[in-house]
Amino acid sequence: MKQEKRKRFRSRAGIEAIIGHLKSDYRMAQNYLHGEAGIQINVFMSCAAWNLKKLMLILSEKAARLFARLFLRPLLHGFYGILTA
Question: The pTM is what?
Answer without folding.
Answer: 0.54
